[in-house]
């Protein structure tokens, strides 16, 4: 039996990048950077789930199709690594550990992907009125203690929703 793989994961991941590029290309010359960014993210979101990665673990930015404006790449990569280590320690069989790892990360990543999608137009907009509204609202609202705590929790990368937090080995805890 040959140990040569019957496919090339790198080429499949190139398809994800290609989908992002094709989505953004429609916006070249139109002067709408936000629409181009969103089209790229939408392209990645459409193709990445079709890449079969059975037995392969991809962590960090390579695993999460998100816009970078939240600044969470390093936090999510550390959470991926922590979750993978915790899951591998708690499972004897690798084939049981990897699906458990994916399940553990699912809610966490879904939350931050959703946040990335809704916040991209707010933080990356060249439209002056959106910037004014963002700056006028986020400053005062961010000083409220409850909102400030929520924003810190978001930035720390520990949430699975506004009401639940994540820790490795458990899908979510309240």
Question: Key features?
Answer:
single chain, 174 residues, mainly alpha, 2 domains, two-stranded antiparallel sheet, 6 helices, 4% strand, flat
Walk me through the structure.
This protein is mainly alpha-helical and 174 residues long. The chain folds into 2 domains: 1-52; 71-173, no CATH class. It has 6 helices and 2 strands, in the order H-H-H-H-H-H-E-E. The chain has helices at residues 9-25, 33-47, 73-90, 94-123, 128-142, 145-156; strands at residues 165-167, 170-173. The chain has a two-stranded antiparallel ribbon. Strand 1 and strand 2 (170-173) form a beta hairpin. Helix 1 packs antiparallel against helix 2 and helix 3 (73-90) packs antiparallel against helix 4.
List the helices and strands and how they pair.
Blueprint: H1 9-25, H2 33-47, H3 73-90, H4 94-123, H5 128-142, H6 145-156, E1 165-167, E2 170-173
Antiparallel strand pairs: 1-2
Helix pairs in contact: 1-2, 3-4
Estimate the helix proportion, in percent: 55-70%
Helix/strand order: HHHHHHEE
In total, the number of domains comes to 2
Radius of gyration: 19 Å
Residue fraction in strands: under 5%
Structural class: mainly alpha
Stretches with pLDDT under 50, minimum 5 residues: none
Tell me the span between the first and last alpha carbons.
49 Å
What general outline do the C-alpha atoms trace? flat
């Amino acid at each position: 039996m040959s140990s040569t793989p019957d496919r090339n994961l790198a080429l499949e991941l190139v398809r994800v990048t290609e989908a992002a590029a094709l989505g953004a290309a429609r916006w070249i010359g139109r002067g709408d950077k936000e629409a181009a960014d969103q089209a790229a993210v939408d392209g990645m979101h459409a193709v990445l789930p079709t890449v079969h990665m059975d037995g392969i673990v991809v962590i960090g930015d390579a695993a999460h199709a998100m816009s970078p404006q939240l600044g969470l790449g390093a936090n999510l990569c550390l959470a991926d690594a922590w979750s993978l280590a915790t899951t591998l320690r708690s499972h004897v069989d690798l084939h049981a550990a990897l699906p458990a790892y994916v399940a553990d990360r699912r809610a966490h990543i879904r939350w931050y992907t959703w946040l990335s999608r809704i916040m991209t137009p707010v933080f990356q907009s060249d439209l002056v009125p959106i910037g004014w509204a963002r700056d006028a609202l986020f400053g005062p609202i961010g000083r409220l203690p409850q909102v400030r705590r929520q924003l810190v929790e978001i930035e720390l990368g520990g949430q699975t929703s506004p009401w639940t937090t994540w820790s490795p080995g458990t899908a979510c805890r309240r």
